[in-house]
Amino acid sequence: MTQDKPDLSAVALRAKVEGLSPQNMSSILAKSRIVAAPGFNRWLVPPAALAIHLSIGMAYGFSVFWLPLSRAIGVTAPAPGDWRVSTLGWMYTLFFVFLGSSAAVFGPWVEREGPRKAGVVAACCWGGGFVLSALGVYTHQIWLLWIGSGVIGGCGLGLGYISPVSTLIKWFPDRRGMATGLAIMGFGGGAMIGTPLANLLMNRFATPQSVGVWQTFLVMGALYFTAMMIGAFGYRLPPPGWSPAGMSRAALRLDGPRERAPSRSGQAQATSAAGRSVPVSIAWRTRQFWFLWAVLCLNVSAGIGILGMASPMIQEMFKDRVTPSSAAGFAGLLSLFNIVGRIFWASLSDVLGRRATYTVFFVLGTVLYASVPVVGAAGALGLFVAIFCVALTMYGGGFAAIPAYLADLFGTAQVGAIHGRLLTAWSTAGVLGPVLVNYIREFQIGRGVPPAQAYTVTMYVLASLLVAGFFANLAVRPVDESLFTLAPAAGSQPVGFGQEPLTAVEPASSSSWPLVAAAWVLVALPLAWGVYNTVSLALQMTL
Question: To which CATH superfamily is domain 276-486 assigned?
Answer without folding.
Answer: MFS general substrate transporter like domains (1.20.1250.20)
